Amino acid sequence: MKRPFDPILVEVIRNQIAAITEEMTLTVYRTGRSGMCKVGDFATAVCDRQGRLIGEGGSPYQMCVFIDTMENVLAKHGATLRPGDMIIANDPYCGISHMPDITLIAPAFWKEQLVGFLISYSHHTDIGGRFAGGISSRCESSFEEGVRIPMLKLYDAGKRNDVLLEQIVANVRTPEEWVGDVDAKVASCWKGQEQLAKLLDKFGVEQFDATCDYLVDYSERVTRAAIRQIPSGEYREEALFEDENEVTGGPVPLNVVVRIDGDQATVDLSAAPPQVNASINAPLVSTKSVTRAPFKALLPGDALTNIGFARAINVIVPPGTLLNPRYPAAVGGRASLMMTLSNMVYRVIAKALPGRLGGVGEGADMLHFNSHSGGKYRSFMDVFFGGWGGRPHVDGVDGASPLVMGGGYGSMPAELLEREYPVIIEGFGFVPDTEGAGRHRGSVSVYREWRFRAPAEVLLRTVGLRGSEGLAGGGRGGDAVNIYRAGGTQDKVLTPQAHVHLHVQPGDRVYHKVHGSGGYGEPYERDPEAVLFDVMEGKISSTRARDIYGVVLEPEEQAVNHAATLALRTRMKEMLVAAAD
Question: Rg of the Cα trace of the chain?
């Protein structure tokens, strides 16, 4: 007999599943060896017996990736899984975003029956290959990018496959750290299995399955309801991808078409350019994930990024293209292209629903460091973010990771880097006058500067060279900047490029500025007191306050001159009207 629907019980179980992912996440955070496990480049999830994602412990983007991950797990191992099994994978051609993203998947059994799956992923600082880190755009094929792991059993009925682990470790530069991070994810999956068993002891498998069915159906219903708010029709966004001219030979045109037909959205990428012999190609799983994730901005917070969410959003992309390459195309350096594509979809939605969404977020720029001394490699990835664009009713958020990445990523503490590696953080902060101006301003740029104490190979990754555009009259954010100083020589501004390789020596410095975010609304409509506050915080100058926002300040009194501001803004509006005529 089917149980009647109990909304309170469903909510209790949903929150207990969320608690499981939180426990798994904390396990990775507390036991992971690398800095990446301290700043948020990891995720966990709970899936039901059908492989449907139910509990989220990460960003909308990563949750969308896990949808494809589980499809591939079930296709290869679905009929042979036993208690104690645990699968390890990083193959971008079987549902993983790129090779550094080492993912563990563990089936969960209760009373000898398969009841679900636990997923624990984190980005590793090395996976072997031609360049440390596995994300250089210079790799021309998958064979150069590192060790590819195609859904293999790390644990088989509880017994660890030491031969497999030894084979992998023999090909990576930082073996102790690599194994430490894998062990953290193993412990994370064990914790998830333990907690899921306790949940089933309390509520039983039938109630758990019924709750999973409801949560999938609920996500589909609210996603379709959100899509239905967009008028049916075809929406387009075009851009020139210029961040990788070094490997593409020039700007690459990108065309996004979003078709809305009632409660169904289709992202059509049929015009995608051909794949290239460089690692900027985005594998199909990444393309599907970054184009679906922006729709999460339309959903209530309790709607999960599961298969129900994905059913409402089709993605069309032909094989053999930059956004769906054929093996063995390299894909490790796909971040800049992915964020460009995701931002294009986000802007399509924002323009289709005026006044609903704000500007795009900026991230994740990073410096990858790899040094070798005393027969040992030391590597780290220092990731940081610009922030969010201005929104219809509030400013952007400074220094936060973009919405599709969940907003939960942080930056590596200077104390951790300086203790563990031969590097000094000389500066980290906001850059004035780099925000996209608007009634609600976008985030200001964030800069970071490193001084090196040992020879090293350095890769600077810039996700977006130009500041993002504003909406509804808002201004564009400031552009990204890379500066290199060799020893005591003069600063050298580097040619803008998504991936920059450097060989640094002791005393050398590298400065990087993330680009700023676009504003929302006309700048002269901004509250003068908010402009004054930004000046007092050092985020904009008094000159910019006057020239861009039309706000005249009294420096000595730290106050707004309202009469002068009104007169200046009146002249600015008159000039805009005249220019429009």
Answer: 25
